[in-house]
Design a protein that fits this description.
Oligomer: single chain
Structural class: mainly beta
Strand content: over 45%
Number of domains: 4
Number of strands: 35
Largest sheet: 10 strands, mixed
Number of helices: 1
């Protein structure tokens, strides 16, 4: 007689008794997706002589191997996975899932089928199409790929036998990607604030917004002001800078996920109107009359930039060797390179100022300082000088520029 073996707790014995008679055959099985190391065992016994005349019976279990022969079990019987998938080797992108599989029991892994399905029903506005079809898996090992999936969406991957026995099932979520561009932004005429509809987290969790506001004013010498802001995901409005009649605004907005910034949407506003201006308005530049080609200088009638900010500021005088509006605008927003006497850059910082009142500044007098050089001007060249105020805060940065245009 043999007692019920204390093997893997997941084993199911048929018949299931506390004790088994000698040569009583027992069938072993495991839960779905697992298989025992032996499917049939039987009780046996073997006499072992302790001393002459007093034999002792020891329990012995035999297992039937693949050839149908009964052999003594050298270790306990356990349940193991029929199909193995290495979780560390699973490759998940925003549009696909790829996994490698290995069948440990080739005779069992016949007619395997693999499929991907949406793990949760989709709902507006984040609608995802169901994955159609399934794939037949052949051989002892291979690769299964779920293509054409939606980003940031949960899918189940199931591999089963033709008898509907599930060998493997797992829940995956595809990676995030950048969000779609915002589609709904408007100017509230009552509050003067920009408002927008929050982006849904269809392609990734929305973690914020990048908002750029560029204001141009053409009257009284004009100016250009750009704010670069990063707003939290809970913010859905921001005040538009007030610059009065004659001002135009260009606004770009992008949504942000952990994967980065999405494509930008662009809107144009005219002061005191929600209509799009008929054409982009260039900001006007002050004229410069006191120019000395022989000395390489020009006298700029500088005035303090209005609308001071509480944030830390720096007032720079930037020189651009062109009248091209696009280049000048980029210079207002960019970081000019240090001046190089052997190869004069097209944009450079001529001075760092502390301007408290109106003053006549001599551009090109040759003075130097840390990070700037008021280099002599060259005859025959076009110049645009930008008086730039830079303000930075935790929320973002703002560049305000007043320009002076002249030729030597």
């Amino acid at each position: 007689i043999c007692q019920r073996p204390r093997w893997d707790s997941r084993l199911q014995l048929a018949p299931d008794h506390k004790n088994y008679k000698k040569n009583e055959e027992v069938m072993l099985s495991c839960s779905e997706g697992f298989q025992p190391s032996f499917t049939h065992v039987k009780c046996s016994s073997k006499d072992k002589n302790i001393r002459p005349g007093k034999p002792k019976h020891r329990e012995v279990w035999l297992g039937r191997n693949s050839g149908g022969h009964w052999t003594p079990l050298q270790s306990s019987v356990s349940c193991f996975e029929v199909l193995q998938v290495d979780p560390k080797a699973v490759e998940i992108s925003s549009t696909s899932i790829k996994l490698n599989w290995t069948c440990r029991v080739p005779d069992t892994c016949q007619e395997m089928r693999a499929m991907c399905r949406l793990a949760e029903p989709s709902s507006p506005p984040c609608e995802a199409d169901e994955v159609q079809g399934e794939e037949r898996l052949l051989g002892q090992e291979g690769t299964f790929i779920c293509p054409l999936l939606q980003p940031f969406t949960s899918y189940s991957v199931t591999i089963s036998l033709s008898t509907s026995t599930i060998l493997f099932t797992w829940l995956f979520r595809t990676e995030e990607t950048v969000p779609d561009k915002p589609e709904k932004l408007w100017l509230d005429p009552n509050t003067g604030s920009l408002k927008w509809q929050a982006l849904p987290s269809c392609k990734g969790e929305i973690i914020g917004y990048q908002l750029n506001i560029t204001a141009r004013h053409t009257q009284d010498g004009g100016f250009l002001e750009t704010q670069r802001l990063r707003l939290s995901t809970s913010v859905t409005e921001h005040p538009l800078p007030e610059h009065g009649p004659g001002s135009s605004y260009v606004v770009t907005m992008r949504g942000l996920t952990a994967a980065g910034a999405g494509p930008a949407s662009l809107w144009r506003f005219q002061a005191n109107s929600s209509d799009t201006p008929p054409h982009p308005l260039d900001f006007g530049c002050h004229s410069v009359s006191d120019i000395s080609p022989s000395q390489g200088t020009a006298v700029l009638p500088l005035r303090p930039i209005a609308r001071p900010t509480k944030a830390a500021t720096e007032l720079q005088l930037i020189v651009v060797t062109t009248h091209n509006g696009t280049v000048v605008e980029d210079a207002c927003l960019g970081e000019p390179q240090p001046f190089n006497a052997s190869r004069q850059p097209s944009t450079y910082v001529a001075a760092v100022l502390n301007l408290t009142g109106a003053t006549d500044f001599v551009l090109g007098d040759g003075t130097r300082g840390q990070g700037y050089h008021n280099a002599a001007l060259r005859p025959g060249w076009d110049y645009t000088a930008l008086l730039r105020l830079v303000s930075r805060s935790q929320q973002g940065e703002k560049f305000t520029c007043v320009c002076y245009s002249f030729s030597v």
